[in-house]
Automatic annotation (TrEMBL):
This is Phosphomannomutase/phosphoglucomutase. Residues 376-449 form the Alpha-D-phosphohexomutase C-terminal domain. Residues 8-135, 157-256, 263-371 form the Alpha-D-phosphohexomutase alpha/beta/alpha domain. It holds the Pfam family PGM_PMM_I. It comes from the Bacteria. The keyword Nucleotidyltransferase does not apply. Keywords: Isomerase, Magnesium, Metal-binding, Phosphoprotein. The lineage of its organism: Bacteria, Bacillati, Actinomycetota, Actinomycetes, Kitasatosporales. Belongs to the phosphohexose mutase family. Its cofactor is Mg(2+).
Length: 454
């Protein structure tokens, strides 16, 4: 009977519980299908520190090699290190990770040569269909000459490439606490930061895919409490937290206060624009702060607003020739990095900006953090469409308001905006609100939540 991959093949990746939902034999079929759909002669494979990752990635490599494809295994790596390998080697790639999901999960993020994303509309649906077919009919006929599987260490090259994109030569010494959450930041940070004038205080650098200390998702405030406390105890200049596969970074200032990803987006955008003489396009999703397009314009750039999600950001990066893109979720995308996201490069920009002046981080980011934001608030609802329609009805036709439906519903006026959008995977509506002051934002937030929650 054919395997049903509908529960594990998502919009942008493969993700599910091992071995209940998928296992090494299925990974082998997915490797064969990935090689077939990308029509590759060679590809690169990497994996995170989860207990199931080495076996799954090796099975995937076997499946691809059986079809005549030469596979380069780069072993333990962060997701952006896999993107580096895909870009630098100009090969399709597969990264075995479930990011910040619990230990029993694993997944695959796939890309074409040059780190171009593979999603439902760009090959993932076909990969799923082939794997399902072969699970019923048997593995595809092996090639007359099977491909090879070789090992290659790309960590030093990845680190050198990133350091070559940010001038850190003149920064003052900084004390930085880094919480790797037992994820891949513990593998990459020591090499990337090597030789920089940093007093590094490591937290949870031991690679452990069971996440014994806290979930490796720094967007959840509960998961940065340890980092905030340590920054204050150490008298550090800043703290940086990475998620499980270390493609996202989250920053706290010298007081231990979180710095919004929108402020980091604006800061990095200003630096990327300055590198290019004040010209260039910057992508931001529709729930980043008003600060982002304002700063981009002030620096001479052109802001472009897009839907939430890396596939939309990367598509707009390619379409517009953008130099940089940022999301509220602490994903940061760089033209200099094949339009792929890398939290590590964003972290280097923060270190360069902070170390290039004498003031504290809180003072530096204040100019990029101009409004009061609610953060993302999730509400479980019985009927997403009905509750969204109720919100629309409450604001439709009011003078001075603008409504748009680029992604969910956005309502805006001169003093505030909010966005409500449905989750694709859970019965949730997600609210983000922002206003010119805290009192206005709180009133707006509570008003919209009352409608959502009926």
């Amino acid at each position: 009977m054919a395997a049903d991959l509908s529960t594990i093949v998502k919009a942008y990746d493969v993700r599910g519980v091992v071995p209940d939902q998928w296992d090494e034999p299925l990974a082998e079929l997915l490797g064969a299908a990935f090689a077939r759909i990308t029509d590759a002669d060679a590809l690169v494979v990497g994996h995170d520190m989860r207990p199931s990752s080495p076996g799954l990635s090796r099975a995937f490599a076997r499946g691809a090699a059986a079809g005549g494809v030469h596979v380069t295994e780069i072993g333990l790596c962060s997701t952006d290190q896999l993107y580096y390998a895909s870009g630098a080697l100009d090969l399709p790639g597969a990264m075995f990770t479930a990011s910040h999901n619990p230990a029993q999960y694993n997944g695959i993020k796939m890309c074409r040569a040059g780190a171009a994303p593979v999603g439902q509309d760009t090959g993932l649906a076909e990969i799923r269909a082939l794997a399902e077919e072969w699970s019923e009919t048997g593995a595809p006929q092996p090639a007359a000459t099977p491909g090879t599987i070789t090992r290659r260490d790309t960590l030093e090259d990845y680190a050198a490439y990133l350091r070559g994109l940010v001038d850190l030569t003149a920064i003052r010494p900084l004390k930085v606490v880094v919480d790797a959450g037992n994820g891949m930041g513990g593998h990459t940070v020591p090499t990337v930061f090597a030789g920089l004038p940093l007093d590094l205080v490591p937290m949870y650098f031991e690679l452990d895919g069971t996440f014994p200390n806290h979930e490796a998702n720094p967007l959840d405030p509960a998961n940065i409490v340890d980092l905030q406390r340590r920054v204050r105890e150490e008298g550090a200049d800043l703290g940086i937290a990475f998620d499980g596969d270390a493609d996202r970074c989250f920053v706290v200032d010298e007081r231990g206060n979180p710095v919004s990803p929108s402020a980091i987006t604006a800061l990095v955008a200003s630096r990327e624009l300055a590198k290019r003489g004040g010209t260039g396009t910057v992508i931001h999703n529709l729930i980043t702060s008003w600060s982002v397009p304002e700063v981009v314009r002030e620096c001479g750039g052109t802001p472009v607003r897009t839907r939430v999600g890396h596939s939309f950001i990367k598509a707009e990066m390619a379409r517009t020739g953008a130099i940089f893109g940022g999301e509220h979720s602490a994903h940061y995308y760089f033209a200099d990095f094949w339009n792929a996201d890398t939290g590590m490069l964003a972290a280097l920009h923060v270190l360069a900006a902070l170390g290039g002046q004498d003031g504290p981080l809180s003072g530096l980011v204040a100019q990029y953090d101009r409004y009061a934001g609610s953060g993302e608030i999730n509400s479980t609802v019985a009927d997403q469409a009905a509750r969204l329609a109720a919100v629309r009805a409450a604001y439709e036709g009011q003078e001075g308001l603008t409504l748009d439906e680029l992604d969910g519903l956005t309502v805006s006026c001169d003093d505030w905006w909010f966005n409500v959008r449905p989750s694709n995977t859970e019965p949730l509506l997600r609210l983000n609100a922002e206003a010119r002051d805290e009192a206005t934002m709180a009133k707006l937030r509570d008003e919209v939540l009352a409608i959502i929650r009926g």
